[in-house]
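Table S2 (text version). Query chain:
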Amino acid sequence: MTPFEGQPDGATPLITEDVEGLKPSWISTQAELNQAEAENILRGRLWASRARRPPFWYLRDAGLKDLHQRMFGDVWAWAGQLRQRETNIGFDPHKIPVAVRDLCEDTAAQIGSGSKLAYPADELAVRFHHRLVLIHPFRNGNGRHARLATDLLVADLGAEPFTWGGAELTAPTDLRTDYLTALRHADTTLDFTPLIEFARRTN
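Corresponding structure-token output:
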């Protein structure tokens, strides 16, 4: 048991080993943890948007790890490190490095020179997002990391920004349920239409 209970459906529960990597000593409740992570994610988002890097720099395993570290590194000592333990969802840990590398290479190939994408921009981005969530490469924060990485991809593809329902998806709300339903629909059918529609939804 840890002091951080009550995670919403689809979230990866924190175990004692994870909590031992908590950096701020003042955090003792789930609400305080949520606040600290939200502030860290905002700094990570600002860093990613301002970074002078070539397009699609995150389509490398090192790039995705760097992004996760920027989003969560002020809170967790293990931020940016690939998951080494089994979780309630996600690939087996020993398969993660190759799966992440394959995802990055496949997405880069789908983009090609940028003149003729393998899929429409929205579908290409949503496919990337779905597969990254499915791999679940980190101990925690995978959904938030995958959404930001996808936002960067959408921007580099020159498409309009995704809205992701127009609200935060970490709380146990109907909006989060709709998001998870769309992800799970893609899991079983490889039909990405509901997830595309959700990514463009405003409320």
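Notes on Table S2: The chain has a mean pLDDT of 93. The longest helix spans residues 30-50.
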